[in-house]
Amino acid sequence: MRALLSTASGGPETLKLTELPDPVPAAGQVLVAVKACAINYPDVLIIEDKYQFKPQRPFAPGGEIAGTIEALGEGVSDWQVGDRVMGVIGHGGLATRIVTEPQRLYRLPEERDFAEGAALILTYGTTIHALLDRGRLRAGQSLLVLGAAGGVGLAAIELGKAYGARVVAAVSSEEKAAAARAAGADETLIYGRAPFDKDQSKALAEQFKAAGGRSGFDVIYDPVGGDYAEPALRAIGWEGRYLVVGFPAGIPKLPLNLTLLKSCDVCGVFWGAFAARDPQANAAHVEELFRLWRDGAIAPKVTQRFPFEQGGDAIATMAARAAIGKLVVEVSAG
């Protein structure tokens, strides 16, 4: 098998394409031939040793995959060789074969290709947990989405509309605004590139407030962080919910007096821990996502596909915050 391995801490240029022995599934495991691996911001962090989980090197990044089952370990009875699967595995996806636990996998519908399958669960699983469990989003409420043209941002637009919210998408370019509108955003606004000085921060806050209207936003979905966070928080409504999803622009420091003045909640969103702690609730969310996918209310936007040998380029594109929609590495044909 081949794998794109992280052998030292650093950027995507440190990854090495390596030949390895084929893995063998132990009892209770399955062997998956990986066809596609989606790239997400945690893949940038994990090879730099900045993610909350630090695998022992060498390891392959790539936490979201689709493929076919090639072999079953002893005791596995719910799957068969040849089954098409998709799932979230943490890391290891940038390899032609991986072993994993079957409970991490879901059946890939026959009408969907492997790239679509690889691009669904992590992005939409994070977002449905954020909006429904942490944000308590309801029909008729207003939702501000930062970084709205990325994978989770577009998912937030689609899910926000599916649940009846008015969605304002905040992005950094007109090209990204067009992608947000195509996903269903009711309104878009374009912000500048951080860092911001005091006057620029105040101007951005006014921009957010104008979009939120007199009542402000009921829910703010923030997968960006950095200098964008405080201006967005200033546009939150009474008893609003500010969802902390990620920090590609840096970890912000928020003035807590704002939470008192608006009686609002700042809510962390850690989907992986939620899924591990409450697998039944997560399974219900995934079932709902499959229904919405089948009904056409959501659909992963795979905008760039990279050959396996260029998997590092996909991670570099994500690190540069240049991605619109989902980036997928096509690991092997099928």
Could you characterize the architecture of this molecule?
By secondary structure, this protein is an alpha/beta fold. Helix content is about 30%, strand content about 25%. Strands 3, 4, 5, 6, 7, 14 and 15 form a seven-stranded mixed sheet that branches. A six-stranded parallel sheet has the order 10-9-8-11-12-13, with helices on both faces. It has a two-stranded antiparallel sheet with strand order 1-2. Helix 11 links the parallel strand 14 and strand 15.
Notable features of this structure?
single chain, 334 residues, alpha/beta, seven-stranded mixed sheet, six-stranded parallel sheet, 15 strands, 32% helix
What's the arrangement of secondary structure elements?
Blueprint: E1 2-6, E2 15-19, E3 30-39, H1 41-47, E4 64-72, E5 84-88, E6 97-100, E7 105-107, H2 114-118, H3 121-134, E8 142-145, H4 151-162, E9 166-171, H5 174-182, E10 187-190, H6 198-212, E11 217-222, H7 229-233, E12 236-244, H8 257-262, E13 265-268, H9 271-277, H10 279-295, E14 302-307, H11 311-319, E15 326-330
Parallel strand pairs: 8-9, 8-11, 9-10, 11-12, 12-13, 14-15
Antiparallel strand pairs: 1-2, 3-4, 3-6, 3-15, 4-5, 5-7
